[in-house]
Specification:
The chain has nine helices and eight strands. The protein has 256 residues and is α/β, with parallel strands linked by helices. It has a single domain, classed as Metal-dependent hydrolases (TIM Barrel, Alpha-Beta Barrel), CATH 3.20.20. Helix 3 runs parallel beside helix 4 and helix 8 packs across helix 9. The chain is globular and about 45 Å long. The protein starts with a strand and ends with a helix.
């Protein structure tokens, strides 16, 4: 592998017509990926696609995609035991909808707590989805309160926190993955510059968030080289040095 996409959803139906072609193109480009589950079906789909060589899986229940499904401890326990599963999630807290009642936050915290415990039992990192309410860092701060002191490891997926919040996650030893948003938005440059390179991962969140070169189209892990190039540009560092570093980070974080 030369590149690694730390958060993708190539098991989603957006790839049903050309998934084999996408995976073949990834192999040709030497791009590995973590295929991330968001519910029971998509978690099983991630495991089924993983080969344990360049494609790996994360299993979990997204905080607000399917609240009616509920968290099935035995189901996720069985999936987590598979050697192709290298992370637990995506899981976490999503407070973006201001109309959600307080009870919804408590439901999310209860489910997230079960993911924390699952990750600890299997000694695997969390893949955390945290989305604060507008103008705040509330979901991030609640994640910090829930994980501190537990010893759990984790990566902050699609990270949009400020520098002060970033400092607190760094104290926990967490990593941060960035998407192609960096190719068309400047809001996150300060955090990308602030972070030690050892704490940065690259991700696409495919099929979402295509880079500037493909705005409005379906995304895929082939966008990772553009994200690496943009991180290097923002940090003023050599692109190949950044590529090697973030790949090494993924290998370390996910024990690939």
């Amino acid at each position: 592998m030369r590149y690694f996409d730390a958060h993708s959803h190539v098991q989603f139906p957006q790839y049903d017509e050309d998934r084999d072609a996408v995976l073949s193109a990834m192999r040709d480009a030497e791009i590995g990926a973590l295929i991330v589950g968001t519910d029971s079906g998509y978690s099983k789909g991630a495991v089924d696609l993983a080969d344990g060589k360049t494609l790996f899986a994360a299993v979990g229940l997204h905080p607000n995609d399917k609240p009616q499904e509920g968290y099935d401890p035995a189901y996720y326990e069985a999936l987590a035991a598979d050697s192709r599963v290298v992370a637990i999630g995506e899981c976490g807290l999503d407070y973006f909808r201001p109309e959600d009642p307080e009870a919804e936050k408590e439901r999310q915290k209860s489910v997230f707590q079960q993911h924390i415990e699952l990750a600890l039992r299997h000694d695997k990192p969390l893949m955390i989805h945290a989305r604060p309410s507008k103008g705040t860092m509330d979901a991030y701060l609640d994640v910090i309160e829930m994980v501190k002191g537990t010893g759990v490891r984790g990566n902050m997926h699609f990270y949009v926190g400020d520098v002060e919040t970033t400092k607190r996650f760094l104290e926990l030893g967490f990593t941060f993955s960035f998407t192609a948003v960096l190719t068309f938005a400047r809001e996150y440059d300060d955090v990308v510059k602030y972070l030690p390179i050892e704490s940065i991962l690259t991700e696409t969140d495919a099929p979402y968030i295509a880079p500037a070169s493909r705005r409005g189209q379906r995304n895929d892990p082939l966008a990772i080289p553009e994200i690496v190039a943009k991180i290097a540009e923002i940090r003023g560092e050599d692109e190949d040095t950044v590529r090697e570093a973030v790949l090494a980070n993924a290998i370390r974080v996910f024990a690939l």
